[in-house]
Design goal:
By secondary structure, this protein is of the alpha/beta class. It has eight helices and eight strands, in the order ββααααβαβαβαβαββ. The chain has two domains: 136 residues, 3-Layer(aba) Sandwich (Rossmann fold), CATH 3.40.50; 65 residues. The strands form two sheets. A six-stranded parallel beta sheet has the order 5-4-1-6-7-8, sandwiched between helices. It has a two-stranded antiparallel ribbon with strand order 2-3. Keywords: Carbohydrate metabolism, Hydrolase, Magnesium, Metal-binding.
Length: 222
């Protein structure tokens, strides 16, 4: 059911919705694999579409022939490399700055709910000068569960001091929409994010599908 009341807050997924982090993540994987004599230059386009799905998904796509044990070893190497490159080439998606400014002008509290671990989330936001702009930051390990479990969404809503029914959640993955639906939170798919060719966002059940961040400001509940 489409919500009827105006938004009183906005929550964002991080990678692929708020911030374009694909280049940093892919570079971390490239560095990890280079030490094992593997190149991913021909897979960078594919890996970009997987950036919202976490390090393991990216490793599995890069070296599908490797054993699960080898993939986990490479994932840990990727995370070590990511510590160093996190935020170096990350940037806000076009239109996000205008959306944040518009929300600020309306005194709407803002938050982030991400499956990125806190050890990477907060340093990234700090390096980009974004941390102070958000009233809530819920990472993969902030609660005992991660999206699509409702726990992170409920904590973020509590930190925004808003009812879930009055918060818009923006995300670029099916689990984002499922997490919002689990707590009766209006949701919109960020079509500018890391969607793969096989993704079917029209089937995810979101309230809206948006091609650009500034389209939020044209929603009837804005």
């Amino acid at each position: 059911m489409t919500p009827k009341l105006p938004f009183q807050g906005i929550l964002f997924d991080l990678d692929g919705t708020l911030v374009d982090t694909a280049e940093d993540l892919t570079e971390a994987l490239a560095l990890a694999l280079a030490s094992h004599g593997v190149s991913i230059e021909d897979k960078r386009k594919l890996l970009r579409t997987l950036a919202s799905h976490g390090s393991l998904a990216m490793v599995q796509a890069a070296v599908p022939q490797a054993s699960a044990e080898e993939q986990e070893h490479l994932r840990q190497a990727m995370l070590r490399e990511y510590d160093a490159v996190n935020g170096q080439k990350a940037c806000l998606f076009e239109g996000i700055e205008a959306l944040l400014d518009s929300a600020l002008s309306r005194a709407l509290p803002l938050g982030i709910v991400t499956n990125k671990p806190a050890r990477f989330t907060r340093p990234l936001l700090e390096r980009m000068g974004l941390l102070k702009r958000f009233d809530a930051v819920v990472s993969a390990d902030t609660t005992l569960y991660r999206k699509p479990h409702p726990a992170p969404m409920l904590l973020a809503a509590q930190q925004l001091n808003c009812a879930t029914e009055r918060i818009l959640y923006l995300g670029d993955a099916e689990r984002d929409i499922a997490a919002a639906q689990a707590v009766n939170m209006p949701s919109a798919i960020a079509l500018w994010g890391y969607l793969a060719a096989e993704d079917k966002p029209a089937e995810w059940g979101a309230d809206w599908q948006l091609n650009h961040p500034q389209a939020v400001m044209s929603l009837p509940l804005w």
